[in-house]
UniProtKB/TrEMBL annotation:
One of its GO terms (molecular function) is mRNA binding. The lineage of its organism: Eukaryota, Fungi, Dikarya, Ascomycota, Pezizomycotina. This is K Homology domain-containing protein. Residues 20-45, 95-107 have a biased composition (Basic and acidic residues). It comes from Glutinoglossum americanum. Residues 173-188, 1226-1240 have a biased composition (Polar residues). Gene3D superfamilies: 3.30.310.210, K Homology domain, type 1 (3.30.1370.10). Keywords: Cytoplasm, Repeat, RNA-binding. It comes from the Eukaryota. Pfam families: KH_1, KH_11, KH_Vigilin.
Length: 1391
């Protein structure tokens, strides 16, 4: 061994070091070294991976996952950057994978450069120094590596890319479990032995020849402190190695480094190598003992469910002894928020301890990830020192770890006072804190390390911390540490000491200073300094009402209770920055006032005195009532008494029977009650006494009909307590409105003389109700005992192991519901569910659980990567969007709560980065990333919900373009418009969402400009932004001018339909839009007496408008009015069609022409007024006279029966007007009414239309109807007055007379419907040539319908012979395809 130590080793402890100097070595040592050097250059035969294995690797080696690109030449493992991620929508459509992001990039194949120093690739060249591979201890917070994972040279995991990237917390994977002892780096995990040496070391060798057993090589490194001393070895190391080689058949090579670490390389068959290395570790290493803290809930998994099969297997494989403590009885039936931990002790050699600990940690990690530890055995007096000033020490401990540490804020004791000062050379005896443990939450490994560090601090504090007591007035205690101990950390930072105050309920003046002995004096001096800086005063409130009926002390205590309950003491303290110490015993009622500011003392004292004086005994009263009724009266009647009688009730906190009543007066709606500060008048005192008496009578009436209140107990075995409580709760659910439920108390403390105190259930209430419930409880207990006897039935069945956590639920809530629902015992272990109980109940529970398993088997989970900025839109207002998805597809959609670390059993998180909608515990994920949305449910529904959510996401992304436009605050009303019409119009025209900020103008200093937010698609945002910016620019550049204009001119300025003002604005360069016009020029309302016209807009435009208006007003002031006599029948000439002529006159001559209405009579009927400038009026007058003079008139009497036939729906009038400039009127007479049968192009219905079965291509299938021409039923004539130029009137008259003659010849009307309306075009011909030819040939009027697709008829009017001839010609045209012909038709149905 000495020679081996002298040789040295490389960085891995294997082989000679080439840098070792040989000048001081003996020849034998040099020869030995040379032999070892040559050994490294021997050729070896290695296993080569089959090409088929490369192309088709095993499943566990090709698990999809993100892979980092490895840089060539790097010795630090994978480095580089992530591949480019896919878009949110594309990623969301990828196939779901458990706990894997949908947008994971594919692994990229990289190739390393040749390593000439590699002993594997080039054995003949030798190898350089091999870099050491650091050991990676298993991470508590992660899943354990599978047995197929390879290991490094020291047995450390060499994780695949998938392992490296799927971990939720990579930082903890490199951590080492803080077990309290060193962990050997050489020991591989269970199942590691037998791996090929090339997989376990860099440059190792394997041998695999056909027909020969496969050889492997493995290595173990034993640290110097793990080795047995030489004097304790049974044999020399060389003999031990030789013995193991003979015993196992393996080849062993030992070497020792300068640091004393020993390395053993074993070669041979897998079984021989494994046994050889185990024997080396067993015979050379010292015995070790470590402790592993695991959750008590996993105890059964470490032991195993078949007589300890799991723990026995661990002990056999590792050669160690594993001790798991027995389970303890729970001290409480209530579930804690933390996990109970137990210590598992492992004893054995270094390698065996490592193997056993790895297997145990693997089991733990398979079932847990995060942990919530509770450190209970630590004295509360140490808490400030553990936390450090302002939490500095715990913050440093948390830094870089996935863990949170919560230390209770301890500054006052409750039930357990601090220890008393000890002798100078002795440490005080501190007791563990009760009910306020330190909490450690987060990754299991990090939490364990934090726990061990805290425990180490506690041991140091036990040796360092001393205690001293000082006496300070109770009222000054608050000012040492602040109201709620807020100044404790400042005190600790300045003095190195902490202060523990007595609770307010204790009438003590002693407080405790804790800290290192050398700093206690600083803490004491600082406490006295803070306490002495206070100013104080006393108020004896009992002296204000010394004649109180029950004594001044009793009244003062009642008044103090009332003011405390009313929070008046707190208000006084806030108002005067003071502290008021109240008495706690039955002595004098003296209030002590303390404040750092001396001038606040006396105003506080004065206000207290005024409040006390304003509450004489007459305002107070009391009523005796059994405490059983207090809760009911407080909940049901206190507000009624306050509203009806103005009496406030103060209930005792203990079992006192007396309820205090204080008269305050009836409340004023919407006004908070304020305590009076003046002595009440006599009338007010009488009012108070009367109200108190009425309130007392009302309270007593509430319980007058109640039965006697009793308290009885019944013995119930402890195992039935929870069931009895649930039973009593159900029994009292449906009580009548006025009935008070019986109170139930389990295990009430009773005197020691009575036995079975824990088995007592106490009931308090009306005697009859208590007796009834006791009988029911007794019957219930008997039924439960009977059920217990029947509960021998047991059944077990398989349940998918992957869904066990869902079956169990968070903290077991789901399985507990099943147990309570069916009243059976249910256990879930390793994919097996065992149910014990009555057969009927057990079978029902089994059926329900099996149904749950089938439902879960069909479930699918999709994890979508969606940026948090879109979550709010996807969730919708009050979750309506996501709730709709959940209801439609029967799935659950979980949005993340927070990006912060949240423990698995913590259902609270920081403020909504995103809201979790529908996030029942069943679907919650402790490690859900802030950009992950989880959809889980039936596979079909989950797929459809994912697709719809991604479509909604794409829509949201497309409509998430945003922009802002700065506008003046004063412009907001005009942008919104009356009733929001302007803004709504802008939204509708652009499609964008426009949010206008709500700023109230009555604010202290409102901003001059505000930002309007625009959201939508890119185009919508651009359009809306452009419009808003244009309006903002116009507004910013706009000015406001006002004009005082007499109202008589307003109508002329506006013009008919706003024509004049529109013309003024457009000529000035303004918009002709109706809304813009209304904003640009605003006239006062007609009913208003205001004459002000407001002009607003661009400065240049406004100035032009104002100038135009002023010019118009100036002209109107100089206008003249002239009346021209024009015969009423010629007014039509002046007006023109639609007022066209009159507008032309007004525009041409710049005048206003007023033509009398037809309703006017007398002389005014013929007077046409012309208003304008004198010269313009003269010109217009001359033009009108000339126009009227040129208009000759001729009247023709037309038979009324022929009026509509000649007018031809107004076509004849239009022909005269367009061709001859002649207008027609009827001298005020109304045209005859049109009969229903005279309408042209009548649709022939009934049976006359061609049938659907007729040949559509045959012209013989037609409908033909002849009727007498429609004639008006009216007799007589109607005048047609023709007006126009004389020569035109003559021509028009001739046309009219010819039309009358023609109409008199048209005695019948024929209606022809062809089966194929598309052939009507043959009848019309090119440019109407055919139909005009038929008209001339037959002398008939022919009308071909325009909308031929509606089956309307061709209408033919004329003499009967001409109508028949026209019909035949039309049919011949259709038959010949429009080529002409005048033959007679060959058939058809005639009507």
């Amino acid at each position: 061994m000495a020679a081996e130590a002298a040789l040295g080793s490389d960085s891995n402890g294997i082989g000679p070091d080439p840098n070792t100097k040989t000048e001081h070595l003996s020849p034998a040592e040099i020869l030995m070294k040379k032999h070892e050097a040559d050994l490294a250059h021997r050729a070896s035969i290695e296993d080569v991976v089959d090409e088929e294995d490369i192309i088709h690797p095993p499943t566990h080696e090709t698990t999809p996952g993100p892979v980092l690109e490895e840089k060539a030449g790097s010795t630090d493992g994978p480095t580089g950057t992530w591949a480019q991620p896919m878009s949110a929508k594309a990623a969301g459509k990828q196939k779901a994978r458990d706990e894997t992001s949908i947008d994971e990039p594919k692994a990229k194949t990289t190739y390393k450069a040749f390593d000439l120093k590699s002993d594997d690739a080039f054995p003949s060249l030798g190898s350089g120094p091999r870099p050491s591979v650091p050991a990676a201890a298993p991470a508590w917070g992660m899943k354990k590596s599978q047995p197929s994972q390879i290991h490094g040279s020291n047995g450390a995991h060499s994780a695949s890319a998938n392992d490296a990237t799927t971990s939720s917390n990579p930082s903890s994977r490199a951590s080492t479990p803080a077990s309290g002892v060193a962990t050997p780096t050489s020991a591989p995990a269970s199942g590691a032995f037998g791996q090929p040496y090339a997989q376990r070391t860099q440059g190792g060798a394997t041998l695999s020849l056909p027909g020969r057993p496969r050889e492997v090589a493995d290595t173990i490194v034993l640290k110097s402190h793990e080795l047995l001393p030489r004097d304790q070895l049974k044999k020399p190391v060389s003999e031990i190695v030789q013995s193991i080689k003979k015993r196992t058949g393996a080849s062993l090579q030992m070497s020792t480094s300068r640091s004393g670490d020993s390395t053993c390389i074993a070669r041979g068959s897998p079984e021989a190598v494994r046994k050889a290395l185990r024997d080396v570790a067993k015979e050379l290493s010292a015995k070790q003992s470590i402790k592993l803290s695991i959750p008590a809930s996993l105890r059964h998994r470490i032991i195993g469910n078949k007589q300890g099969v799991t723990i026995q297997g661990i002990q056999q494989r590792s050669g160690t002894r594993v001790h798991v403590p027995r389970p303890e009885e729970p001290t409480s039936t209530n579930e804690d928020d933390y996990e109970i931990m137990i210590d598992v002790v492992i004893e054995g050699d270094a390698l065996g301890v490592k193997i056993a600990s790895d297997e145990i940690l693997s089991i733990v990690n398979d079932h847990t990830s995060n942990v919530n530890l509770s450190l209970k055995g630590i004295p509360a007096e140490f808490y400030p020192f553990i936390a450090g000033p302002n939490g500095a020490r715990t913050a440093a401990l948390e830094e870089g770890r996935n863990v949170r540490i919560h230390i209770p804020h301890y500054y006052t004791w409750t039930t357990q006072p601090p220890p008393t000062p000890s002798a100078p050379n002795q440490s005080p005896t501190f007791s563990p804190a009760i009910g306020i443990p330190i909490r450690v939450l987060g990754d299991r490994l990090a939490a364990q390390q934090a726990r061990e560090e805290i425990e180490r601090w506690v041991e140091e504090l036990r040796r360092q911390i001393a205690v001293e007591e000082i006496s300070v007035d109770r009222g000054r205690h608050r000012f040492i540490l602040g109201g709620r101990g807020d100044l404790l950390h400042d005190f600790l930072q300045e003095t190195g000491c902490a202060v523990v105050l007595p609770p307010p309920s204790e009438n003590r003046e002693t407080l405790t200073i804790t800290g290192p002995r050398d700093k206690l004096s600083d803490g004491i001096n600082k406490a006295f300094e803070l306490a002495g800086s206070m100013h104080s005063a006393n108020v004896d409130i009992s002296r204000s009402h010394i004649t109180a009926p029950h004594g001044p002390q009793a009244h003062a205590r009642n008044l103090t209770r009332y003011l405390e309950q009313r929070k008046e003491i707190e208000r006084l303290e806030r108002s005067f920055d003071a502290h008021i110490a109240l008495p706690t015993d039955d002595g004098p009622v003296i209030w002590e006032i303390y404040s750092r500011i001396g001038r606040n003392i006396y105003p506080a004292r004065a206000e207290i005195t005024s409040i006390v004086n304003a509450h004489p005994p007459a305002r107070f009263g009391h009523v005796e009532m059994d405490p059983f009724f207090h809760r009911h009266v407080r909940q049901q009647s206190a507000h009624i008494i306050k509203d009806n009688y103005g009496v406030h009730l103060v209930f005792p906190e203990d079992e006192n029977h007396q309820i205090l009543m204080v008269y305050e007066g009836k409340p004023v709606p919407g006004q908070e009650y304020e305590l009076p500060k003046k002595f009440p008048s006599a009338s007010e005192l009488n009012e108070a006494e009367a109200a108190l008496q009425e309130a007392r009578e009302y309270l007593l009436s509430l319980i007058r009909d109640q039965k006697e209140i009793v308290k009885k107990s019944i013995e119930v075995p402890k195992k039935f307590h929870e069931k009895v409580q649930r039973f009593l709760s159900r029994e009292q659910q449906d009580l009548a409105g006025g009935e008070i439920p019986v109170r139930v108390q389990v295990g009430e403390p009773i005197p020691r003389t009575l036995q079975a105190a824990d088995d007592q259930v106490f009931l308090r209430g009306p005697a009859e109700s208590v007796d009834t419930l006791i009988n029911k409880v007794a019957q219930f207990i008997e039924e439960e005992k009977e059920n217990e006897r029947e509960n021998g039935y047991a059944t077990s069945f398989d349940f998918p192991k992957k869904f066990a956590n869902i079956l169990i639920g968070r903290k077991g809530e789901n399985i507990r519901k099943y147990r309570e629902e069916f009243d059976v015992e249910i256990q879930v272990n390793d994919g097996k569910v065992e149910i014990k109980g009555a057969k009927r109940r057990a079978d029902a529970a089994k059926a329900k659980i099996i149904a749950l398993g089938k439902k879960l088997e069909d479930e699918a989970t999709h994890v979508l990567k969606i940026k948090p900025q879109y979550h709010r839109d996807l969730i919708g207002a009050k979750g309506n969007q996501v709730n709709r998805l959940q209801e439609r597809y029967n799935v659950r959609v979980n949005f993340p709560r927070s990006a912060n670390v949240v423990p698995a059993n913590d259902d609270q998180s920081i403020a909504d980065t995103a809201s979790e909608v529908g996030g029942g515990h069943r679907f919650s994920r402790a490690s859900q990333a802030p950009d992950e949305v989880i959809i889980r449910g039936p596979r079909k529904g989950a797929d459809e919900a994912r697709e719809e959510l991604l479509n909604l996401l794409q829509y949201t992304i497309d409509h998430s373009h945003v922009a802002s436009v700065s506008v003046a605050l004063n412009q907001i009303p005009s942008l919104i418009g009356q009733g929001g019409r302007e803004m709504e119009s802008l939204r509708l025209s652009t499609g964008a969402q426009i949010d206008v900020p709500d700023f109230k103008r009555d604010g202290a200093d409102p901003p001059k400009r505000v930002e309007i937010k625009v959201k939508g698609t890119k185009k919508q945002v651009e359009d809306a932004k452009k419009l808003l910016e244009e309006r903002a620019k116009t507004f910013d550049e706009s000015i406001v001018r006002t004009l005082e204009v007499d109202k008589k001119h307003h109508k002329a300025l506006i013009g008919s339909g706003g024509a004049n003002i529109r013309d003024i604005v457009t000529k000035a360069g303004g918009s002709d839009d109706r809304r813009d016009l209304a904003r640009t020029v605003r006239f006062p309302r007609q009913e208003s007496e205001d004459n002000t016209i407001v002009v607003e807009g661009n400065k240049l435009i406004v100035e032009k408008i104002v100038a135009s208006i002023e010019e118009i007003i100036k002209q109107r002031e100089n206008q003249v009015t002239e009346t021209v006599e024009v015969a009423p029948e010629k007014h039509r000439v002046l007006i023109g069609r639609g007022g066209e002529t009159r507008r032309d006159l007004e525009s041409r001559f710049n005048v206003s022409v007023d033509v009398p209405k037809q309703s006017q009579t007398g002389q005014a009927r013929s007077g046409v007024k012309i208003v304008g400038q004198l010269q313009d009026v003269e010109k217009c007058r001359e033009h009108i006279l000339g126009l009227v003079k040129n208009q000759e008139g001729a009247t023709v009497q037309v038979p009324r029966r022929l009026h509509h036939s000649i007018s031809d729906n107004g076509q004849f009038f239009r022909r005269l007007r367009n061709e001859h400039k002649v207008s027609v009127d009827h001298n005020g007479q109304q045209p005859p009414a049109r009969s229903a049968t005279t309408s042209p192009r009548v649709r022939i219905n009934g049976g006359d239309l061609p049938l659907i079965t007729d040949d559509q291509n045959s012209p013989d299938n037609f409908s033909w109807v002849i009727r007498d021409s429609d004639e008006s039923a009216e007799e007589g004539d109607i005048p047609w007055t023709l007006r126009g130029p004389p020569e035109s009137v003559i021509k028009a008259r001739a046309l009219l007379e010819a039309a009358i003659e023609q109409a008199q010849k048209q005695t019948v009307t024929g209606y022809l419907i062809l089966p194929d309306p598309s052939k009507y075009r043959y009848v019309v011909g090119h440019g109407g040539s055919q139909v005009n030819s038929i008209r001339k040939q037959t002398g008939c009027k022919i009308t071909v319908p325009r909308d031929q697709a509606k089956g309307e008829a061709i209408e033919i009017q004329g003499a009967k012979e001409g109508v028949e001839q026209a019909k035949d010609i039309i049919l011949e045209l259709v038959r010949n395809g429009g080529s002409g012909g005048n033959g007679v038709g060959r058939g058809g149905r005639k009507g």
